[in-house]
Amino acid sequence: MAKYTIVDKDTCIACGACGAAAPDLYDYDDDGIAFVILDDNQGTAVVPEDLYDDMADGVEGCPTDSIKVADEPFNGDALKFD
């Protein structure tokens, strides 16, 4: 089943944990806030299966639960499935 990821930029504290765990998925803007590289943080790109473990590590390492993962696209809304 396809997986999608997005970062809630309103709760991200720029700690760097997600990018350290999954550098092929997450990067940081000029303020250090994380975003998803695949789709400019829209949550619409399917995460490649070979990155699932890294994605899970990024989710687990996020102290603010800002990294979201779902089986459906977020369409730019990080709170869509909360």
Automatic annotation (TrEMBL):
Residues 3-31 form the 4Fe-4S ferredoxin-type domain. Pfam families: Fer4_13 (PF13370). It comes from the Bacteria. PROSITE patterns: 4FE4S_FER_2. One of its GO terms (molecular function) is iron ion binding. Keywords: 4Fe-4S, Electron transport, Iron, Iron-sulfur, Metal-binding, Transport. The keyword Cytoplasm does not apply. The keyword Electron transport applies. Its cofactor is [4Fe-4S] cluster. InterPro entries: 3Fe4S_ferredoxin, 4Fe4S_Fe-S-bd, ET_Ferredoxin. PANTHER family: FERREDOXIN. Ferredoxins are iron-sulfur proteins that transfer electrons in a wide variety of metabolic reactions. This is Ferredoxin. It comes from Anaerobacillus isosaccharinicus.
